[in-house]
Design brief:
two-stranded antiparallel ribbon; 2 strands; globular; 57% helix
């Protein structure tokens, strides 16, 4: 199965808008998680599997292949590491991570308010 490609139909977009292709790739099971864990530094397959905790070897292999094809990660002496493009993507996701924590607080606060 090929990776989602800008300009080609992807989940959620018949036009294949680049952002939708990216979200399709990262939205796959463990897609963003693998990228996020590799932001902690290069590592071997086994160490990456440990960092991802519940990922199966089959899914990890598939995500690594897709993220390599997308040019977000490469094989390196230590196993796998982010490319410059992968590091740039991770840096763009950090503010989204901060926003998600704020959102979680808002939702938690709303459910704790007395009726």
């Amino acid at each position: 199965m090929a990776i989602p490609t800008p300009g080609q139909p992807v989940r959620g977009s018949r036009s294949g808008a680049p952002i939708m292709a990216l979200f399709d790739l990262l939205g796959r099971r463990w897609g963003m998680g693998v990228l996020w864990r590799l932001s902690e530094g290069p590592c071997s397959f086994r160490v990456l599997q440990e960092r991802c905790e519940t990922i199966s070897p089959t899914i990890l292999n598939r995500r690594l292949k897709e993220l390599r094809e997308a040019e977000f990660i490469v094989r390196c002496d230590q196993g796998y590491c982010l490319t410059d493009l992968g590091r740039e993507l991770h840096q763009m996701l950090v503010p989204l991570s901060c926003f998600s924590r704020q959102w979680a607080e808002v939702l938690r606060d709303e459910t704790e308010e007395p009726s």
